[in-house]
Amino acid sequence: RDLYNAEAQILEALPRMIRRTAHADLKRGFQEHYQQTEQQLHRLEEIGNMLGQDLRGHTCKGMKGLIAEGEEAMKEFTDSDVLDAALIGAAQRVEHYEMAGYGCARTYANLLGLADQATILQRTLDEEGETDKRLTELAETVINIDALK
Ligand code: FE
Ligand code: FE
User: What is the whole-number distance in angstroms between the Cα of residue 149 and the centre of ligand 1?
Assistant: First the structure.
């Protein structure tokens, strides 16, 4: 339920981040991750259905805080290159938080003998990891360098 609400919050926040970045690669990266996040939310719904659990009605306070920090950065930085660097920093915090949550959930699923659910969770975990790596590459090769100027 926590992951489900976290993904839902990300779906709400990403369009603002997409609007705020002028960097084509970063914009595309966020757009792609938006599509991915829709699928990730759907996968959790699938797991909820498999287990007969309603995932709605819970708030992930951690994600709420991370998104609030991202919003703060969007207010604070007016230089677009510096803002892009800050947006990546915010997005990577989100990815790492998700990776921790999905890693735990995957391990619990395995221990509970829920191999199918563990496989589904692992797929999302891999996607979050790839997104994080892509953000690192973008930051280290272009965006952080531009922000320095
Ligand atoms: Fe996600
Ligand atoms: Fe993510």
Answer: 32
Distance 90 CA to ligand 1 centre (A): 14
Residues 6+ apart with CB under 8 A from 83: 20, 21, 73, 74, 77
State the SS3 of 78-137.
Answer: CCHHHHHHHHHHHHHHHHHHHHHHHHHHHHHHHHCCCHHHHHHHHHHHHHHHHHHHHHHH
Q: What is the pLDDT of residues 101-147, one digit of tens each?
A: 999 999 999 999 999 999 999 999 999 999 999 999 999 999 999 99
Give 64's pLDDT tier (boundaries 50, 70, 90). very high
Which residue's structure tokens are 């589904």?
A: 120
For 62, half-sphere exposure in the C-beta direction (CA atoms, 13 angstrom radius) is 16
CA 120–ligand 1 middle distance (angstroms)? 13
CA of 95 to the centre of ligand 1 (A): 7
Compute the half-sphere exposure of residue 28: CA atoms within 13 Å on the CB side of its CA. Answer: 5
